[in-house]
Amino acid sequence: MREIGLWNVEEGVAQTFFEFDEYAGQCKYSDCTHTHGVGCGVLSALEKGLISKERYDNYLKLRKELKYLESKQNGSAQIAEKRKWKTIHKELKNFNKKNKQ
Ligand SMILES: [Zn+2]
Fold first, then answer.
1. How far is the CA of 89 from the centre of ligand 1 (A)?
2. What's residue 39's pLDDT?
3. How many CB atoms lie within 10 A of CB 1?
4. Ligand 1 centroid vs 97 CA: distance in angstroms?
5. H/E element, 93
6. 5 versus 68: which is more confidently predicted?
7. CATH top-level class of 2-100
8. How far apart are CA 18 and CA 24, in angstroms?
9. pLDDT at 87
10. In the prediction, which pLDDT does 45 show?
11. Mean pLDDT of 15-44
12. Label partner for 68 (CA 20 to 30 A): which of 31, 54, 58, 62?
């Protein structure tokens, strides 16, 4: 359920800020945060007045929220993964015990 939720947010950002996608593709670095001037397509578009400062601010705000959601999701996924392995190890132990008897 959470995955679908996050997907919707990502989709929403892409749809709301569709023009940013084009400029972000012009960034020198693929992991560009669009907050530093070095080779950033979004910032150069902002400088040229192709995108408004207001939209740029909103875009960064949404990206930040998305990152936070992603990290939260990764965190809970990792915990679930750990639990899964704990159960598997437990079952393996029991299995070995039974085999020895
Ligand atoms: Zn950029």
1. 45
2. 93
3. 4
4. 57
5. helix 53-100
6. 68
7. mainly alpha
8. 10
9. 84
10. 95
11. 88
12. 54
For residue 30 the two structure tokens come to 């693929």
Q: Which two tokens stand for residue 8?
A: 């919707």
Query: Which residues does 14 contact at the CB level (< 8 Å), separation at least 6?
Result: 21
The pair of three-digit structure tokens given for residue 38, joined into one six-digit string: 């070095």
DSSP string for 30-82: TT--S-S-TT-HHHHHHHTTSS-HHHHHHHHHHHHHHHHHHHHHHHHHHHHHH
Distance 73 CA to ligand 1 centre (A): 24
Q: Is the per-residue pLDDT at 82 higher than 90?
A: no
Map tokens 């020895």 to a residue. 100
Structure tokens at 14: 């892409």
Q: Would you state the structure tokens that stand for residue 91, as one six-digit string?
A: 């079952």
Compute, in angstroms, the gap from residue 37 CA to the centroid of ligand 1. 8
